[in-house]
Amino acid sequence: MRKLPLCSLAFLASVCTAQSVTLPAGTPFPVQIEDHLPMRVGQPIRAELIYPIYVDETEVLPAKTIVSGTVVGLRANHSRRVTARLRGDFTPFRIPVVRFTSVTLADGATVPLVTGVATDGAPIYRLVAPPPRKGGFVHQQWDNGVQILKDKLAIITGPDKGDRLTQFLYTQLPYHPQRIEKKTAWTVETSEPLSLSPQAVETDATAQPVAITPASSQVDSKTWIIQAYLGDSLSSATSKSGQEIRATVAEPIYNPDHTIAVPEGATIVGAVTEAKPARNFGRGGTLHFAFRQLILPSGTTQNVQASLTGADSAAPDKLALDSEGQVKPKPQDKLLVPFTLLVLAARPLDEDKGGGFGKDAVASNSLGFIGFIIGTAAQQRNLAAGLGYYGAAISIYERWIKRGRDVTFARDTRLVLQTTPRNSTVLPSPKL
Predict the structure, then answer these.
(1) If 0-12 CB within 10 Å is exposed, 13-18 middle and 19+ buried, where does residue 183 land?
(2) First and final CA of the chain: distance in angstroms?
(3) Where does the signal peptide begin and end (predicted)?
(4) Are the beta carbons of 246 and 422 closer than 8 angstroms?
(5) Global pTM?
(6) What are 206-246's pLDDT values in tens digits?
(7) Do 50 and 201 form a contact (C-beta atoms < 8 A)?
(8) Contact, 333 vs 145, CB < 8 A?
(9) Residue 386's beta-bridge partner residues?
(10) Is the dihedral of CA 28, 34, 40, 44 positive or negative?
């Protein structure tokens, strides 16, 4: 057998090495399911990557890559159970514990994946700062009430209205089946390095266009829009002003000439500028942070000025991002809903007009189907009114008395930062 020259062997080895890709341990995999799934142990999960994954400025796993796993356990959701019991709902709410075990590549090959378990699954939406609100307290409460009404109408007018209406009717029952909702997402980290074959990397590379500047990533010649993963969890309940925070750049940013401005894997460093924990009487927590320094993988540092312009959130109906980058709980309707429930609760006590059944129904329905049955079957106006006032009292407690909601960002939350380079002396890299 003829032996190849040593230089030829070295060349072939270098080619294979250049083509192979290894994702390091700790790489975030943000995935979501595209259909409803039963809430049960052993349920197979077929999810898709929400965002592409880069290694050395090369997209190695595009968005929509299939990631498979299994529901390995069910954990009791105690806080939701308590809230539901107060409203006559005895559903044993649970949280699925999932683990992902494989990735299906573009060439059809399946690669084993080792990750930790995830329990924080929820549909994810992008928080975007709205324009500043106008008007006083009453005007804003009216706007909140109108928005709540629009959200309720969306049940029968929005996409998948048939399924949405069915689920809404289920919530009126004292017990209803639970499922893993469509678009539920998890972010898991690899526990071990993930090696991709040269053939798979080549397939992905040929399937993707040459990297160019994304349209949304260049506001002007000195402004970047950076996609990054938060390094550690943040909460308005525990974070302190001045606390250092770090995020890892998830996608490379390109200059107009297609050279790399900010490589994937760079670290952007900042600090919490304001953190207030939630308090009683419905006062929610607030959290504000900013980034001031960019550390490239080579160790080079650059001063920047960055603000939060977007963030993935599992609770878009509960959190709001203002135009200054501050995140706080979305204002609840503190007037319209409690006032409406109080008016309806008083209807059975009105003896001037007939229609006792209708009055009892609208009053007792504040506790859902079980309240409706009890309030109308008993044919006792005092009982129906009592159920109505009980529902109104719960609404008042949740909006005016109960401790407010804290702002929380989990580790690996996807952030969108608008970053402007600053012409100043480069700060030294902070000590680890």
Answers:
(1) middle
(2) 55
(3) 1-18
(4) no
(5) 0.69
(6) 444 433 333 343 444 467 888 888 888 888 888 888 889 89
(7) no
(8) yes
(9) none
(10) negative
Tens-place pLDDT, residues 288-338: 888 888 888 888 888 888 878 777 776 655 666 665 556 666 666 666 777
Q: How far is CA 209 from CA 62, 106, 172, 213, 223, in A?
A: 11, 15, 50, 11, 24
Q: Is 280 helix (H, G, I), strand (E, B) or coil?
A: coil
The 10 Å CB-count burial string (b at 16+, else e) for 308-329 is bbbbbbbbbeebbbbeebbbbb
Q: Give whichever of 19-23, 27-31, 141-145, 366-370 has the largest mean pLDDT.
A: 27-31
- Beta strands per DSSP E along 387-428: 408-409, 414-421
Q: What confidence tens digit (pLDDT) does each residue in 73-90 have? A: 999 988 888 888 888 888
Contact in structure between 270 and 291 (CB atoms under 8 Å): yes
Q: Catalogue all structural domains in the chain, each as residue range(s) with its CATH number.
A: 19-124+184-208 (2.40.128.260), 127-182+332-403 (no CATH), 209-318+405-421 (2.40.128.260)
Type of residue found at 81: R
Return the residue matching tokens 């329990």: 119
Residue 315 in tokens: 């609770």
Q: Which residues pair with 189 in a beta bridge?
A: 28
For residue 356, give the DSSP letter: H
